[in-house]
Fold this sequence. Notes:
Elements: H1 8-18, H2 23-37, H3 46-52, H4 56-65, H5 86-99, H6 106-119, H7 121-129, H8 133-145, H9 152-169, E1 189-190, E2 196-197, E3 206-211, H10 218-227, E4 236-238, E5 244-246, E6 253-254, H11 260-265, E7 266-271, H12 283-299, E8 322-323, H13 335-339, H14 342-355, E9 369-373, E10 379-381, E11 390-393, E12 397-405, E13 408-411, E14 417-419, E15 426-428, H15 435-454, H16 458-469
Parallel strand pairs: 1-5, 3-7, 3-8, 4-7
Antiparallel strand pairs: 2-6, 4-5, 9-12, 9-15, 10-11, 12-13, 13-14
This protein binds zinc ion.
Residues 210, 325, 333 line the site of zinc ion.
Amino acid sequence: xxxxxxxxxxxxxxxxxxxxxxxxxxxxxxxxxxxxxxxxxxxxxxxxxxxxxxxxxxxxxxxxxxxxxxxxxxxxxxxxxxxxxxxxxxxxxxxxxxxxxxxxxxxxxxxxxxxxxxxxxxxxxxxxxxxxxxxxxxxxxxxxxxxxxxxxxxxxxxxxxxxxxxxxxxxxxxxxxxxxxxxxxxxxxxxxxxxxxxxxxxxxxxxxxxxxxxxxxxxxxxxxxxxxxxxxxxxxxxxxxxxxxxxxxxxxxxxxxxxxxxxxxxxxxxxxxxxxxxxxxxxxxxxxxxxxxxxxxxxxxxxxxxxxxxxxxxxxxxxxxxxxxxxxxxxxxxxxxxxxxxxxxxxxxxxxxxxxxxxxxxxxxxxxxxxxxxxxxxxxxxxxxxxxxxxxxxxxxxxxxxxxxxxxxxxxxxxxxxxxxxxxxxxxxxxxxxxxxxxxxxxxxxxxxxxxxxxxxxxxxxxxxxxxxx
Length: 470
Ligand SMILES: [Zn+2]
């Protein structure tokens, strides 16, 4: 493909878009290339200019003419992506020689880079389907460029470079964006399977929920579809822990429901389940399923989910736009647990679609307060955020929160932090606590702390206090 454009930036943008990267994918990649080389294909790593005694241009010319023969092994970063490691520099050099191009040729490097990226299947898939610059930028940084420093500030900086390209080039009249569908931003794991037909031949207008017959995580499910010899897959896998995996991009047809027509128009979702009747799913999986389906509907223009439990309505999406595997094959799928909840799922999703606003609890009573956890497997983590390690799961029940940070609550037991903002996980209980109750609680805590540090027998002291008060 001939790269054309009025500037190097525009040339790179057009090239990447032609190669199938989404606007966010192209921008995220470009932000990283900018950080690496300033988008200069002849860029020799600055610290090596002095050491090797070359400018960018002189180095390029010397490699091209053969006057400099240590290109592969000199450990100097070079070119758009600052290729450094010897085997990658060797491939780059061989590729340039093969097509008779200068080592500093922009077009040659772009072609080479695309070949490399296709070898990083997970990275490539994200670049093709990314909806946000940040997701594309992060995966290029951590899985393709892999510089020594991949800290959160580096991530933010590179994504901000990418965002500038996105703002400059995406959504311009020259772009044909209309048919570029993305995947759910709720995805926590991606492993794209070969078991799919690309692209699907019908617009997405149906949801088909399955049970995977195993209490798996999204990763286990996606990894299974990516490696199995059986010809099966699903667009998404919802894990027992509420994780959400992408196995087949929405733009493609999954091999899931024993029915080609259905899978061409449906987003198929496998949900982790028990292995026997009624194939129950965890509360976390159920909650994640609702969120995922609502997101799919929003992005694909499905205004309302319709469920009549009527097989004769297959294909009449204005009357019913949910289908089940058992209608197409002699199977129990999606299992009675989910089948019987299809009406409730539609209702919960429609509630989310109807309001148009995310249900998030963002204000909390003064600590301490109590919460009722309503799912079995809410994680508690080492610190207040998703990036902290999971230490365990609370189980259902009432818990006391003693500190709040960024929507996370510290459990009174000290076991860890739980996420408070999602009302599908927990209910904040004592919003209505009066000032007097708060004051009493605080006094009790102060007394308890004093007792603890005094070394006295607490029970004896409290008994004596009661006597005095009486
Ligand atoms: Zn099924």
